């Protein structure tokens, strides 16, 4: 209730733009978050594969 | 008989032409006002279709360079999501702040410049005037919203 009263005291357009910009900026940040996650997956893959990549015909695969 | 009808016909033609010109000018002025009013209404209601009427790369809103963040987005997919999110969050913020579209009155064309059109509306609750800057080139798009 107190928050609602505080918001009413502010300019509606300013508040709306602020919320809009912050919300929309999260979309831009998602790009960097995706890249960071992809980097982490790569790091995990490199750890298990000891830096080597799978290459058909060259990499020997052991089936259990 | 025919000589008497000619001045009458001429007067009628002048009146019709004047009426057509008046309607055309009125329509031109009104269309810009309706355009800006529609954008504010769309933003306030979270209507994503207004996104196509906004120049996102240049958009400045009440001192905030909205276009700067938009320009930094590299893919069109992210840009579209940014547009959608901005409109939806704007509506959310407008509602939270207790905004009312009816508070904006006296919509009018404030000024006409070579490359843009300035439309104004008075906010009776804040005793301020909100000014919309619209590009004059087709398709016309909203470039800025600011207080005056």
Tertiary shape of chain A: rod-shaped
Number of helices of chain B: 3
> Mind telling me the C-alpha Rg of chain A?
24 Å
- H and E order of chain A: HH
**Distance between the amino and carboxyl termini of chain A:** 64 Å
- The SS-based structural class of chain A is mainly alpha
Which strand order does the major sheet of chain B show? Answer: 2-1-6-5-4-3
Strand and helix order of chain B = HEEHHEEEE
User: What is the percent of helical residues of chain B?
Assistant: 40-55%
In short:
With 64 residues, chain A is mainly α.
Task: Describe the SSE topology.
The complex is a heterodimer of chains A (64) and B (148).
Chain A: H1 2-9, H2 12-49
Chain B: H1 2-45, E1 60-61, E2 64-65, H2 66-72, H3 76-96, E3 104-112, E4 116-123, E5 128-135, E6 142-147
Parallel strand pairs in B: 1-6
Antiparallel strand pairs in B: 1-2, 3-4, 4-5, 5-6
Explained architecture:
The complex is a heterodimer of chains A (64) and B (148). Chain A has 64 residues and is mainly α. Chain A has one domain. Chain A has 2 helices and no strands. Chain A is rod-shaped. The model of chain A has no long low-confidence stretch (mean pLDDT 74). By secondary structure, chain B is an alpha+beta fold. Chain B has one domain. Chain B is 49% helix and 24% strand. Chain B has 3 helices and 6 strands. Chain B has helices at residues 2-45, 66-72, 76-96, and strands at 60-61, 64-65, 104-112, 116-123, 128-135, 142-147. In chain B, β5 and β6 (142-147) form a beta hairpin. In chain B, α1 (2-45) packs across α3. The A-B interface holds A 4, 7-8, 10-28, 30-31 and B 43-44, 61-62, 64, 66, 69-70, 72-75, 78, 81-83, 85-94, 96-99, 103, 126, 130, 145, 147.
């Amino acid at each position: 209730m107190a928050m609602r009263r505080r918001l009413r005291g502010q300019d509606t357009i300013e508040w709306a733009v602020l919320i809009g910009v912050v919300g929309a900026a999260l979309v831009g940040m998602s790009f960097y978050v995706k890249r960071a996650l992809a980097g982490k997956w790569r790091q995990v893959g490199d750890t298990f594969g000891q830096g080597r990549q799978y290459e058909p015909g060259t990499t020997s695969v052991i089936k259990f | 008989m025919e000589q008497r009808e000619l001045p009458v016909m001429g007067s009628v033609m002048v009146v019709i032409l004047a009426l057509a010109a008046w309607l055309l000018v009125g329509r031109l002025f009104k269309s810009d006002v309706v355009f800006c009013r529609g954008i504010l209404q769309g933003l306030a209601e979270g209507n994503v279709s207004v996104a196509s009427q906004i120049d996102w790369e240049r958009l400045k809103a009440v001192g905030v360079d909205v276009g700067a963040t938009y320009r930094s987005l590299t893919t069109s997919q992210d840009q579209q999501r940014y547009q959608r999110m901005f409109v939806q969050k704007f509506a959310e913020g407008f509602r939270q702040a207790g905004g009312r579209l009816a508070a904006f009155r006296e919509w009018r064309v404030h000024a006409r410049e070579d490359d843009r059109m300035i439309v104004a509306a008075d906010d009776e609750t804040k005793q301020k005037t909100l000014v919309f800057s619209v590009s004059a080139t087709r398709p016309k798009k909203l470039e800025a919203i600011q207080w005056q």
